[in-house]
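Researcher: Please predict.
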Amino acid sequence: MLVAMGTKTARLDLRLTEDQRELIEQASQLAGTTITGWSVARLFDDARRAVADAAVTRVPRAAWEGFVAALDEPWDERTNDLMSRTPVWDAK
C-alpha cells in the first residue's frame, strides 16, 4: 500500500450511514490506524487499481495467440500493393 507523502492540503468529505461509519471504524481499529488513515489507504489503492485497469486491455490467451498468428501470416497481393504506395502525407 503506497500513499503519497507530502503536505496534505486537500479535503474529501463523505456522507455515510451510521452502519457504514461503524464498520469502517471497526476495520480501522483492527488495522491499528485511524479512520482517516485507513480510508485514505483504501481509496488510494482502489483508485490506483481502477486507473491501471482502465489503461490495460486484457484478452483471452487464445485470442492473443490468434492475433499474433495473423501478424505472422504473409501479406496478400492487395496488402503488398497498398504498402508499396507513397502515403498521402508524403506525396508532394
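Model: The mean pLDDT is 92.
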